[in-house]
Amino acid sequence: MNTFKKTVLTSSLLTFSNFYLAQTRDSIPQKVMAYVAEKFPLARDFNVEFTQLTPYKFSSKLHGADLPENKVNNFSQVKLSSNINLIRTKKWILSTTLNYRYTSVDTENSISDYAKNNDFHYHSETLSFTYFSKLFNKTTVFSANFSIDGSEQHFERMRGMVTGTMILKANPKTKMSVGLVGIIDPSSQVPVIPTFTYEHTFNNGWIADIILPKRVLIKRNIFENGRISFGTEMDNTSFYIYDADKKYEYRQLEINSGAMYEQKIGSFIGTLKTGIRAVPNARIFEKNESFKDYFFEASPKPSFYFNIGISYNPFGKRKN
To answer: What is the model's pLDDT at position 213?
Structure first.
């Protein structure tokens, strides 16, 4: 399903855009400062998290033929990420984003020629340029980034993205923006994607937090430095598979619905998440093909997930 590719790239871009905003409080116009004033920034300077799923069954097809129902006995992940400003001025920022993901999957039965016990390493590195300007008298953020990804064996794909995000409203109660994402990737099926963000604080203290198509949350600050959230977030898992002289890519779209609690202690933020994960599609295809040209497709049943993480934000604004 081509929606997977679209969602993954859009989610990544939204994360980068929020990072750019969150890291430039003292060098951009006041409206942007109001837009990003946040005790719990969306993107963290340094972040580590662990995810564990309960066992789940899945049906699958290989070259269009049904395979016997299978089961994932264990699915766990470790993710590390870092967002660093390299150069920052009043009008533009040069930054880098580094990501590493370790995925361990244990299936009950082997899938074709692939071993049933698999450990996969995936990394990506991004160099980004962001420029702050005005468009139709509205503060607008333009950005362009170049990224490369791969495994522990090889660098594999190069991608580019450009975006324009216009801040329509930014005050202590309501923040809203619209934007467009342009994707520079031969395997992409959708070259341009619209984006929309909306955050509103209600009189009772609850906050609506919408970043389309990445997430829809309702959240509330509790205690002195805590926050609880309920809703749905989209994520993805992807990695490369090597078989003789051929290279394949595995991708799955993930919809996580549940609860999240965050606690801030100085420059550290601890996070706990739990709920139900649904995977609309999971596919394997040759690296030089696109997501729609797959030869293996799986349809997993929903499962429960548990995620724990900690981030360190020495470059962010400290609030206690």
So the answer is: 85
